[in-house]
Design brief:
Layout lengths: L7 H9 L8 H21 L9 E5 L5 E3 H14 L5 E6 L6 E2 L9 E9 L10 E9 L10 H4 L6 E9 L3 E6 L4 E7 L4 E6 L10 E3 L10 H11 L10 E2 L5 H11 L2 E4 L10 E2 H14 L3 E3 L17 E2 L1 E4 L1 H12 L3
Parallel strand pairs: 3-5, 11-12, 11-13
Antiparallel strand pairs: 1-2, 3-4, 5-6, 6-7, 7-8, 8-9, 9-10, 13-17, 14-16, 15-17
Amino acid sequence: MSNSFMTIQRHIMEEEKKHPKATGELSALLSDLALAAKVISLEVNKAGLVDILGYTGEENVQGEDVKKLDIFSHDMMIHAMNHGGHLAVMASEEEAEIIRIPDRHNLGKYVLLFDPLDGSSNIDANVSVGTIFSIYKRISADGTPGTVEDCLQPGDKQVAAGYVLYGSSTIMVYTAGDGVHGFTLDPAFGEFLLSHNNIRIPEKAKIYSLNEGNYKYWRSGLKEYIKYLQDADDRGREPYTSRYIGSMVADIHRNMLYGGIFIYPADRRSPNGKLRLLYECNPMAFLVEQGGGRAIDGRGNRILALKPESLHQRVPIYIGSKEAVDMAEKFISNEE
């Protein structure tokens, strides 16, 4: 398949042909998400020129100050997705409860969970931010409005997931369970064009990403693991390079391409970690596993096997190249 003028819509349709029983609904849903990403990208790229930078003065359900672009992105996702007829219910990191779909449009068979603007604390510094999304099939009865239970499914039930990175270029990366594919937005044509076909995360890593400012709160196993990554040895093993942007989408995207591990651990200040299972960890874990990597919680569990208990549940995460995650698992399983 040639990358030349392979738009995301065409790619989605080509992938759909591989599944004779496909109805086209998931394809339409992914196309709607691509449209929402284009609009959000436009606003992010001109954020310094209009009055949407800065805080709203409010807090979201996580108790975090809300940026104006967070609200714009959240609203745009809802407006783009709630009238297509493909969804039963949505949930967002910015909303305390589920987002109900308007009547006559709320009987679809899919569920959408999303983080509208991950890394938004970096907006004013012009650092890359992103949108993360996760799609499931509903488990409630067909022909009825969706429920909270539709949203509280383990990550291994996802049928599609992805992210949009708003950086020097806008890139949309998605999986529908058959590999990971990336598309770069061509501003001249207004289309996402295939730029990264069948992304495979390198098995051997060379980058680690985590906030080392929290070192004193870490448990012993993680401290030893980071020391191991920083050290060379007489057998020619080179130390890893530390690269931490503080935007999960940007850090994981880089590691997907170059090989690396991203860590947001449990520690004495955040015993359950900080990142959200439904809106960040599950979709990223699905993508990374589809690309040949691993994602674990550091407590003996695969991220995708966790059963969510609430809409805004937080979990620790170790995610990235298989070799690096395997080694992390050995260190943290032996910690004091």
